[in-house]
Amino acid sequence: MHILPVLVQLAWRYLWRNHRRTIIMLSAVSVGAWAMIFMMALSRGMVDQMISDGISVIPGHVQIHNPAFLDDPSISNPIPYSQAELEHKFGDSGFVAWASRVRVPAVVMSERESRGVTLLGIDPAAERKFTFVDYDRVDGRFLDAVDDNGLVMGAKLADTLETGVGKRVVLMSQGPDNDIADRGFRVVGLFHANVESYEESFVFLGRQTAQEMLRIGDETTEVVFVGDDYRNVEPVYEKVTAAVDDSVAVSRWTEVDRYLGTILKTMDGFMLIWVVVIFLALSFGLVNTLVMAVFERVREIGLLLALGMKPGMVLGQIVIESMLLLGIGLLLGDLLAYVSVKPLESGIDLSIVAKGMEMFGASSILYPKLYLKDVILANVVVLVLGFLASLSPAWRASRYEPVEAITRVG
Amino acid sequence: MDIMLRLAWRNLWRQPRRTWLTTGAMVFSNVLLIFMISLQFGMYGLMIDNTLRIFSGHIQVQARGYKDDKKMREIVPDVRPLAAELRADLGSETIAARGLAFGLVSSEERSYGIGVYGVEPAFEPQVSNIPGLVGEGRYLDDIDAYEIVIGSALARNLRVSVGDELTLLGSGLDGSFAAAVLRVVGTFDSGARDIDRNIGEMPLGAFQEVFFMNGAGHQVVAMAPSLDDVPALESRIEAAIAGRNGLVVHDWDALEPGLRQAIEADMSSAFFMYGILVILVAFSVLNTQLMSVLERTHEFGVVMALGMKPGRLGGLVMLETALMGLMGLVLGAVIGAAITHWLGIQGYSIPGMEEMASQFNLPARIYPDTTWLSTLIGPAVVFVFTLLAAVYPALRLQRLHPVEAMRSA
Asked: Which residue of B has its CA nearest to A262?
């Protein structure tokens, strides 16, 4: 009944009988485990950043639009609720943040250049919690009210247009009856974003100012909601769906930005594949080690069996040996991953490939992230698959005929 | 030498299970490496080709400074004669002139800000695949006609179809107000949402009139027969425009810096993974060979006592490893190439792949590209590391004393 401690002790001693082999195998397991976790931390960091940048542009976790708006983003497809109705519906329903806005395509012109942009008419106070603008890095000032008369654009766009804080630009868009709505604005601020293309494509106005320019009363085209966790937007989605009727389309961010949505969905799958591939590469060495370990003590095993040790115990002892080997290797690998990821968490500068990262939709600083669930995944996969892989050598060892085994010449 | 070879071969098969397991590790890694590397190279090729074929081409002549901001007034003067001259000089048809402006297009019901390219209808099809993607209607044909082709998504958003008129508003080269009425003659469908929603093309002659360009444009685009020919073409074009002030020649890498960088970023993460695989195989080989040396200590002592030099014993161990490595290389290469080649014919797609593929201008179905290089590079590296892993066990033999060795069990 106190057999387990004995088996563990036996396994432990066998392990160190041939310490070179054990150390090599331990190194292999540690390197494998380190690589699994390190790679996962890098990928997680990159995707997290992409999504948090991406969501802040889309933005929000859940949005509502006029059903026609997604394919035809025009002022002619407004949200069928007035601002007062929206306040009434969502005002105190406990979202982390929500905001209604005017989002339409427009053309911005300086005296030198013109560019197509997305015009966002926003409530600066409500948006502050989730827009991608880095408020500490705004040249000039950001908008401060819905009726602010100024315009804020990206620093890169201002460069292209050869304009800047204090200068005037003309904004042209489509009015409700397809007459051209245009108006001059003074640029009051330039924002900086992690991804350069955002700086090129967005122009901010106060919501009310935008509505006046477009002559649309208090109509908006988009309402966005932010919940606690972008990975699980269902609670927000359900709450929003319950509050509205069929006249608007409710979408999760994964449906609006399908590229990011796909990445998030396939991410866990790719992590698992990576872990399994590394394990398979390790498994050959593991099985080899066990086979050798059994082979060189066939006579001892025969002796133990002859003395009355149950085949199950032999099997157990070898499986324990394998588990000890993997367990220690994993522990070392986990530690190694922890010490190598921690100092990198302040960010890895990838600006030499910034344009390339932008093609992936990622910013040029990578912040690796160690998730407990990834570490657990790696460890559990290795232990479970390792257990299965060690069954075959262990089984063979336990099936030896004692007499044959003892008399076998090593 | 022959006897050494036979000895090594026989030694390998004293422990067939161990040999197979070690070889198995190599084969597994090799197959994986061949597949991944072929897939990568296949994808990179497509990614570059598809991206460049849309607009940027292999090489462009532009005004100095134009590349970064695409400003209206950074022009190439007399752009059509320049393109014609380059075509004549280089004897190549794959050269075309373009202008680019940004403006607001309006239909009866809708208005959108877009980029409008002025193109040479006769030559644009040689440098871009947009003309070939016109689904409805036709591509442009007359260089002075007031016509436009637009992306299908833009046409849908504007609620226009072939034959309808659009108003184009913008500012001209001198900053003055530019306006024109253009007839939609065709729509194209590139599959890239940004392009189908934001781009139109009109004949360069009309473009120059509308935007008061005075014969100027912004780019002369050239395609080389293949990526390898780009540097040669670039230097010929550079020589041809040498006399013109303010013009520069950019190759695709300068035009689309994201492309190479995306590939580099992807490659470095891929090489990290490959490196780990190779290291794990090396550990496996190290373990096997060290064991096989240790368990033969007695035997080695005997042959040394009989006069065998430790150096030759070390050589024997290396030879055993090389034989094993060679088996792994050949088996891995054959199996890997077979699988990859089969997938290269079938093509394959990963669920959810479409979204990612379109981000990089890739088709949803991927055909790995099996070449000698992509097949052999992975296994060759594994082979080298296999040999390196055996160095330590082989060196241990040098310290072996025959008498002590023979005493060990």
From this structure: B352
CA distances from residue B400 to A215, A223, B309, B387 in whole angstroms, order as listed: 94, 79, 11, 21
Whether A60 contacts A130, CB under 8 Å:
yes
Q: How far apart are the first and last CA of chain B?
A: 29
Separation CA A408–CA B14 (nearest Å): 15
- Pick the residue from chain A with its C-alpha nearest to B291: A21
Q: What does DSSP say about strands A249-252 and B95-106: parallel, antiparallel, or unpaired?
A: unpaired
Long-range Cβ contact pairs of B396-399 (< 8 A, separation 24 or more): B396/B290, B396/B293, B397/B293, B397/B300, B397/B310, B397/B313, B397/B314, B397/B317, B398/B310, B398/B311, B398/B314
Task: Give dist(CA B104, CA B119) in Å, integer.
Answer: 18
- Cα torsion angle, A47, A49, A51, A57, sign: negative
List the single residue in A with minimal CA-CA distance to B70.
A160
CB-based burial label for B158 (10 Å; 0-12, 13-18, 19+): buried
Instruction: Take residue B201 and report the two structure tokens written for it.
Output: 């093309």
3-state SS track over B287-337: HHHHHHHHCCHHHHHHHHHCCCCHHHHHHHHHHHHHHHHHHHHHHHHHHHH
In this complex, the residue of B22, B257, B288 whose CB is nearest that of residue A355 is B257
Q: What is the spatial distance between Cα B400 and Cα A187, in angstroms, rounded to a whole number?
A: 82
Q: Which distant-in-sequence residues (6+ apart) come within 8 Å of B295 by Cβ?
A: A296
Please list the ranges in chain B whose pLDDT falls under 50.
Answer: none
pTM of the full predicted structure? 0.81
Q: Which two tokens stand for residue A317?
A: 């002892």
Residue B407 near residue B304 (C-beta atoms within 8 A)? no
- What is the rounded distance in angstroms from the CA atom of residue B363 to the CA atom of residue B367? 10
The answer to whether residue A352 neighbours chain B at the CB level (below 8 Å) is: yes
In whole angstroms, what is the distance from residue B110 CA to residue B82 CA?
Answer: 38
Q: How far apart are CA B395 and CA B41, in angstroms?
A: 39
Cβ <8 Å between B110 and A354:
no
Cα–Cα distance, B73 to A350 (Å, whole number)? 33
How far apart are alpha carbons B301 and B407 in whole angstroms?
Answer: 8
DSSP B81-133: HHHHHHHHHHT-S-EEEEEEEEEEEE-SS-EEEEEEEEE-TTTHHHH-STGGG
Tokens coding B5:
């070879």
Is residue A45 exposed (0-12), middle (13-18) or buried (19+ Cβ within 10 Å)?
buried
Q: How far apart are CA B249 and CA B64, in angstroms?
A: 9
Gap between the Cα atoms of A337 and B366, Å rounded: 34
Q: State the complex-level ipTM.
A: 0.79
Contacts with A188 (C-beta within 8 Å, 6 or more apart), sequence order: A140, A141, A143, A148, A150, A151, A152, A165, A166
User: What is the signed CA dihedral for B20, B22, B27, B28, rounded to 10 degrees?
Assistant: 110
Which residues neighbour A53 within 8 Å (Cβ) at sequence distance 6 or greater? A132, A193, A194, A195, A198, A361, A362, A363
Bridge partners (DSSP) of residue B245 are none
Mark which residues 269-308 of B lie under 8 Å from A by CB.
269, 272-273, 276-277, 279-281, 283-284, 286-288, 290-291, 294-295
SS3 A95: coil
Contacts of residue A364, Cβ cutoff 8 Å, sequence gap at least 6: A194, A349, A350, A351, A353, A354, A357, A358
Minimum distance, in Å, between the CA of residue B284 and any CA atom of chain A = 5
pLDDT tens-digit map of A61-118: 888 999 888 778 888 888 988 888 888 888 777 788 888 899 988 889 888 888 889 9
Q: Which residue has the tokens 């230097």?
A: B235
At A37-68, the pLDDT tens digits run: 999 998 888 888 888 777 766 567 888 999 88
